[in-house]
């Protein structure tokens, strides 16, 4: 099977796992836990085997069964330019020819850090450190916040996801603001004893917890627009209230912009909502599809990072030249072309089209969207936090997902994930998606009929 451009039909087909994908998944399950290298890829929440992906271009995926799909996962966010953007691929090839990794200083990482400090409001006048994933970024930022403040407690949002560091894998207990309990086997209770959880969109809950634990909380970490409970916009004023509370209590405010960075605006949610955290965590788009994360912010805080200061953090592949080349090329294109108005328009049209088709079919769906990230929650009523999201009809979502896949559209395979629009989603891709949705909602409507 060829992946040359002439192979691509650009006519989406039935994307359910065919014989090739099923054979690969069977083989994978023997040597890889669950057959996947990250759990959500196993399609447990929607049923069926996952299609295996051979290649990707623009808004399309090509499966190992030779089927083209319109892709709204976008490698979980990074593919904002569309897949395999030629300028990014060229930059990666050029860098690779000069050597894959040096474990030493490079000009590219300086240029990259300077660009980040120019584009991201929280980094202006501050400093940034490159790492290799979003998990590393949040874990390191919170170690730094603890080292800087000399305090140990962390506040996070119920349903917020910040990667898989032990102390962030926390399930909320009952009540408005609770002590965390381990959210995974293998996480000792002691490790999460200092992690407090609050509902999203309630500044009052944060205020209460900061008062209860006055002088002990190092950081409040929040996805400014959560994507990991599905997409949930912040209520007007919420982020500013967090800012004010953290300033008042001497707590480090950390925005986890691994998903929202360069997606909801060039300068991320900090720019979109005009609220500047003390530290910001980046990932996904910042690496242009390669493994890159970053954390940074206030200079006086970042000066505590080794070797300048006493908070240790390191990485053999941090600032990897090939990954930096991909990230740099991606951000340079975004800064040069300023495509956010176009992205907003495409995303708004798609979301409106999906909502209209759900309404026409009589399927209750709440469409949450911020910029080019969106989730349709299968429920009536608004979704402002994780409890609201959990009240969705997960069976209806799963059926809709399967129907869309059958019609050649690849959505995030969980109700509690966001889907992403890219600059490569043209009229043909959007039109196909909306026709598919018409059929998929009609099928789901039988549940309600
Ligand atoms: C908001 C957020 N933070 C952190 C992470 C962790 O990033 P990674 O998967 O690159 O470790 C993710 C995604 O996984 C994320 O969406
Ligand atoms: N929700 C996760 C990040 O955004 C999905 C990616 C993964 O965990 O594989």
The rounded Rg comes to: 22 Å
pLDDT < 50 stretches: none
- What is the CATH topology classification name of the largest domain? Aspartate Aminotransferase, domain 2
What is the number of helical segments per DSSP (H or I, 4+ residues)? 14
The strand line-up of the biggest sheet is 4-13-12-11-10-5-9-7
Helix-strand makeup class: alpha/beta
Mean pLDDT reading: 95
Share in β-strands: 5-15%
Question: Explain this structure to me?
Answer:
This protein is α/β, with parallel strands linked by helices and 449 residues long. The chain has 2 domains: 5-71 and 339-445, Aspartate Aminotransferase, domain 1; 86-337, Aspartate Aminotransferase, domain 2, CATH 3.40.640.10. It has helices spanning 19-31, 86-97, 107-119, 134-149, 189-192, 203-212, 238-249, 268-273, 299-302, 321-337, 340-361, 386-390, 394-406, 427-445; strands spanning 53-57, 60-63, 68-71, 127-131, 153-157, 170-171, 178-179, 181-182, 195-198, 217-222, 252-256, 279-282, 293-297, 366-370, 373-377, 409-410, 419-420. An 8-stranded mixed β-sheet has the order 4-13-12-11-10-5-9-7, sandwiched between helices. Strands 1-2-3-16 form a 4-stranded mixed β-sheet. A hairpin with a 2-residue loop joins β1 (53-57) and β2 (60-63). α2 packs antiparallel against α10, α11 (340-361) packs parallel to α14 and α13 crosses α14. The protein is globular and about 55 Å long. It starts with 18 loop residues before the first helix and ends with a helix. The site of the ligand N[C@H](C=O)CCC(=O)O has 7 residues, from loops.
